Amino acid sequence: MKFLLIMHNNPKIWDALTEEERNEVMRGHGAFMETVKKSGEMLSTVALTDPSQSAVVRVRGGVPAVTDGPYLEAKEYLGGYYLVECDTRERALELAALIPDAGVEGLGIEVRPVVYAGTADD
After folding, report:
1. Which of 2, 12, 51, 120 could make an SS bond with 70 (beta carbons 3.0 to 4.6 A apart)?
2. pLDDT value at 73 more than 70
């Protein structure tokens, strides 16, 4: 089964960490990726920039309108994800617990089963 391990970022929580704590989280991602690559469970990963760098495109009456900034005003934003393939939901939960963000007070990892995943070649 495929699972999306979704990392939500809260800029206030991230900014409250010391530089060493932030570096520890980032190093932890390297270790996590090595673990899931070795186990053969890693399919892909994406890390996203700060939501202030995003744009929202809406089409109204056939005319595109582009606005800067995040889609929603929120405390938490999608920060990135790991797409993994493992035998059980329990294993996906185990993997999520290894992601360093899960150990940061106020953050967590959302584990969601994937219904469909395609590629450009499909």
Report:
1. 51
2. no
